[in-house]
Amino acid sequence: MKRSLPGAAAAAPATPDAAGAAPGAAAGAATLVAPGVAAAAIAPAHAPAPAPVPTRADTLRTEFEFELPRGYVDETGVLHRRGAMRLSTARDELVPLRDVRVRENPAYLSVVLLGRVITRLGTLPMVHDGIVENMFASDLAFLQDFYEQINAEGHTLASVTCPNCAEDFEIDLGGSRLGES
Predict the structure, then answer these.
(1) Confidence band (pLDDT; 50, 70, 90) for 122?
(2) Which of 25, 26, 31, 47 could form a disulfide with 43 if both were Cys (CB 3.0 to 4.6 A apart)?
């Protein structure tokens, strides 16, 4: 003899009943199906809508490639110039504030921050703040500017049309080097 808890409903059968009700449907509920349409193809009114398929416009680019002006020279003398940086998170910007080196010297913040967001540099197995602090000053300045550009969410980009050829393109109004506007 099967026992059930008081007030608990018995489990619905896994297959449609003789009346054609869908599995799990309440007893006595009828499911109307048009001729030639499978019952499984009809979703109940309370079912969530299917998630939209992301389009190219919906995707977010989170990693950006760069090439250092001079390059980082590792302890074996190998030059590393090409790398990638990811978008910064709130955590990336908050964690360095607890670092003792940053508390003693606030200028060290960018070194620690860049060590967190640079994902790749040449053939180095890992990039960290120790590598960033041994870069040439011009490369550090480049990376600081690059960080600002990719994390500015495009606020300095403007869509323009060439008056000569009518081609559309974007320009960076913020500039990244001295003398640019």
Answers:
(1) very high
(2) 47
Give CA–CA dist 42/48, Å, rounded: 13
118 phi/psi in degrees, rounded to 5: -75, 120
Q: Specify whether the CB–CB gap between 174 and 156 falls below 8 A.
A: yes
Are the CB atoms for 75 and 68 separated by under 8 Å? no
- Residues 105-138 as b/e (b if ≥16 CB within 10 A, e otherwise) read eeebbbbbbbbbbbebbeeeeebebebbeebeee
Q: Which residue has the tokens 């193809």?
A: 41
Angle between helices 109-117 and 137-151 (to 10 degrees): 70
Question: Which has more confidence, 117 or 171?
Answer: 117
| pLDDT number for residue 138 | 97
How far apart are alpha carbons 99 and 51 in whole angstroms?
42
Q: Please choose, from the candidates 40, 138, 142, 25, the residue with its C-alpha nearest in 3D space to the C-alpha of residue 83.
A: 142
Strand 157-161 relative to strand 118-121: parallel, antiparallel, unpaired? unpaired
Q: What are φ and ψ of residue 103, in 5° steps?
A: -65, -35
- Spatial CA neighbour of 122 closest among 69, 76, 62, 79: 79
Neighbouring residues of 146: CB distance < 8 A, sequence distance ≥ 6:
64, 66, 85, 176
Q: What is this structure's pTM?
A: 0.56
